[in-house]
């Protein structure tokens, strides 16, 4: 079982979209699976390494990194979300990390530390700079 445990730990270190090849027997058929699909099939949950607070008015959870990914859910400003820490995937001007619950990807640059105040501006609002500050 030690080999299987080591394999599961190694899976948690991969980006969920990384391709993993599994060969059945010597010279057998090779199957290509995403690390995320393989983790789900084996009941492996990624390790949560970072909790962040949504700073944007709302934050889309997407099916893949980038604004072209389907919107799976929306998180309200101020919501705490657990992410799998690692090297962010860069796409469409944002840095993307996977949610720890496996729902999808978020633009981490639209979040702040969990104890930081949110400062995002609601959509369709105008910020007016004044000598003493800003008005929304």
* H/I helix tally: 2
Spatial strand sequence of the major β-sheet = 6-3-10
Radius of gyration: 19 Å
Mean pLDDT: 83
Strand content: 35-45%
Number of strands: 12
Please describe what this structure looks like:
The chain is mostly beta strands and 136 residues long. The chain has helices spanning 2-12, 35-42, and strands at 19-23, 30-34, 50-54, 58-62, 71-76, 80-83, 89-91, 94-98, 105-107, 111-112, 128-130, 133-135. The chain has a three-stranded antiparallel β-sheet with strand order 6-3-10, with no helix packed on it. The protein is elongated and about 75 Å long.
Features:
three-stranded antiparallel sheet; 14% helix
How would you summarize this macromolecular structure in one to three sentences?
The chain is mainly beta. 14% of the residues lie in helices and 36% in strands.
What is this structure's SSE topology?
Elements: H1 2-12, E1 19-23, E2 30-34, H2 35-42, E3 50-54, E4 58-62, E5 71-76, E6 80-83, E7 89-91, E8 94-98, E9 105-107, E10 111-112, E11 128-130, E12 133-135
Antiparallel strand pairs: 1-2, 3-6, 3-10, 4-5, 7-8, 8-9, 11-12
């Amino acid at each position: 079982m030690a080999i299987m445990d080591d394999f599961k730990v190694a899976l948690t270190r991969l980006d969920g979209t990384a391709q993993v090849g599994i060969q059945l027997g010597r010279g057998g058929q090779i199957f290509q699976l995403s690390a995320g699909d393989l983790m789900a099939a084996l009941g492996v949950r990624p390790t949560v390494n970072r909790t962040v607070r949504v700073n944007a008015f709302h934050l889309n959870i997407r099916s893949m990194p980038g604004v072209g990914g389907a919107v799976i859910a929306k998180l309200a400003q101020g919501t705490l979300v657990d992410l799998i820490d690692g090297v962010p995937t860069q796409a469409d001007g944002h840095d993307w990390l996977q949610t720890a619950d496996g729902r999808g990807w978020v633009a981490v640059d639209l979040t702040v530390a969990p104890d930081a105040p949110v400062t995002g501006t609601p959509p369709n609002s105008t910020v007016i700079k004044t000598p003493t500050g800003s008005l929304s």
